[in-house]
Design goal:
With 477 residues, the protein is α/β, with parallel strands linked by helices. The chain contains twelve helices and 22 strands. The strands form six sheets. It has an eight-stranded mixed beta sheet, with helices on both faces.
Length: 477
């Protein structure tokens, strides 16, 4: 069933539920999202070209390993610290990706190949195998898989039945690392080896281009994501592609907020200039480096954490003055620099006593078009906007093709309006909008509607959070 945006000059023809949002200069409306953050990553482990759901660091290690030099773990871990409701990762690989292998030989005087071991995923992880005589039964063998000097699993007392050896390797519950395959017509028992390394593997990282990122973004479109971030990539041409992708998806009814950041060399002036060029409510541009547990994260990496934090917050919460995990921030911006950044649409961090906080939840929209007011310049308001769009569009399953559209008997239209009013009552009870909202037929547009079209409109006062507190003190003699 179709969803998306519409206007008077472009009414979609596919049956569905279409929304549009407009404000006059003095009106304040907006929406929120459901907590799913997506990020393409590079790794030396894990399934390739597949969207993987991660909800804990334990799952992250199991799915992608724990190589801090690659973005799957380094930035996946950082994202989890921001507490998104769900983190979706997609391991990109280039055409060079290849699993590592090791061929085992028998123990005959003229050793012959008998079993091929292959890593489950393309990798350069330092896997090695030791096969030795079992301490109790000397005619049987123990097989141990190591990564470097760390033992990953062991299978004891393997006999000379090669089919059984292969089956025991592949079915071992601790073996999430390798697959075994018997070579045709192989005979004999396992020969002993010590720390025999797997070879020929390739992580598939060195030749990753913007094309691979675009393929990943396409894959995420069908997963209902709310936030998107790159894995520390600062290429401006790719970031512009992300903006175009966000806009295209919004036109098709998929609301995604993208969180981006610059390189470690980028200055505040350059960041502000980029924010002004983005100038879109669904694009957030982050400036400032952050330190966490002795590790320095550049601006594009800090954007990963901000993306997770902003995407995971409840609808009524705001990133304004939000305390982060970071121990230190650089550069330390002056008040004038902070004000310039916020006016440009650049999200910045600052040190407040012992805490590193996000100053304000700004996005890059600061040059407002006629149909959008300054409320669209905050992440919280745009999350609210996206939530209303997505949540009310879900009502299409209850009504499109199922209720009548008779202007004389408004039963079908009344059912739709009652359901929508109930949803807005929920927002009002949560303190996100005032209770003086209206949900009604758009009589002006309905008067010109086709027989299968129904136009409705809503009007609500958006309740902002307190961001500035002003006090006055009087001293008496």
């Amino acid at each position: 069933m179709a969803t998306g945006n519409w206007d008077e000059n472009n009414r979609p023809q596919i049956p569905g539920f279409y929304n549009r949002f407009e404000t006059k200069a003095e009106e304040r409306i907006g929406t929120g999202i459901h907590g799913i953050l997506a990020m393409p990553v590079k790794s030396d482990w894990g399934e390739t070209k597949k969207v993987i759901s991660i909800k804990s660091e334990k799952e992250l290690k199991k799915q992608f390993g724990e190589n801090m030099n690659l973005t799957a773990f380094r930035l996946g871990r950082l994202a989890l610290l921001g507490n998104p409701k769900e983190l979706l990762l997609y391991r990109m690989t280039d055409d060079n990706a290849k699993c590592s292998t090791l061929t085992l030989k028998n123990g005959e005087s003229a050793p012959a190949d008998i079993i091929v071991l292959e890593s489950k995923y393309p990798t350069t992880r330092d896997f090695n195998i030791t096969i030795r005589a079992n301490l109790i039964a000397q005619d049987k063998r123990d097989l141990i898989l190591f990564e470097g000097s760390k033992q990953l699993f062991a299978i004891t007392a393997l006999d000379s039945n090669l089919d059984e050896v292969v089956e025991r390797i592949n079915s071992n519950v601790e073996n999430t690392y390798i697959n075994a395959k018997k070579i045709d017509n192989a005979t004999g028992s396992l020969g002993e080896v010590a720390n025999k390394k797997f070879t020929g593997g390739n992580d598939g990282i060195s030749a990753i281009t913007n094309k691979h990122y675009l393929e990943t973004m396409k894959a995420f479109e069908s997963y209902g994501i709310d936030g998107f971030t790159l894995d520390g990539v600062t290429d401006i041409s790719l970031q512009n592609c992300v903006k175009e992708w966000v806009i295209r998806n919004k036109d098709e009814g998929i609301n995604i907020i993208a969180f981006l950041g610059g390189s470690k060399e980028e200055t505040l002036e350059q960041a502000n200039s980029k924010s002004k060029e983005f100038n879109h409510e669904d694009v957030v541009n982050v400036f400032c480096h952050g330190y966490y547990e002795g590790i320095k994260y550049n601006q594009a990496e800090v954007a990963v954490y901000v993306a997770a934090l902003g995407t995971g917050q409840r609808l009524g919460e705001s990133l304004c003055n939000e305390v982060t995990i970071f121990d230190e921030v650089e550069p330390r911006l002056s008040k004038v620099e902070i004000e310039t950044a916020l006016n440009s649409g650049t999200l910045v961090l600052t040190k407040d006593d012992s805490d590193v906080i996000i100053v304000d939840d700004v996005n890059t929209l600061k040059n407002y078009p006629d149909n959008k007011s300054d409320v669209f310049g905050s992440i919280r308001a745009v999350k609210f906007l996206n939530a209303v769009d997505g949540d009310t569009s879900l009502k299409r399953k209850d009504f499109v093709g199922k209720v009548t559209n008779d202007p004389e008997n408004n039963t079908g239209r009344t059912l739709i309006l009652c359901a929508l009013k109930k949803y807005f009552e929920t927002l009002s009870n949560a303190g996100i909008i005032r209770n003086d909202f209206t949900v009604e037929i758009d009589k002006e547009l309905q008067a010109k509607a086709k027989s299968d079209e129904f136009f409705w409109k809503w009007n609500a006062t958006y309740i902002d959070v307190v961001k500035r507190i002003y006090g006055t003190g009087y001293v008496k003699k």
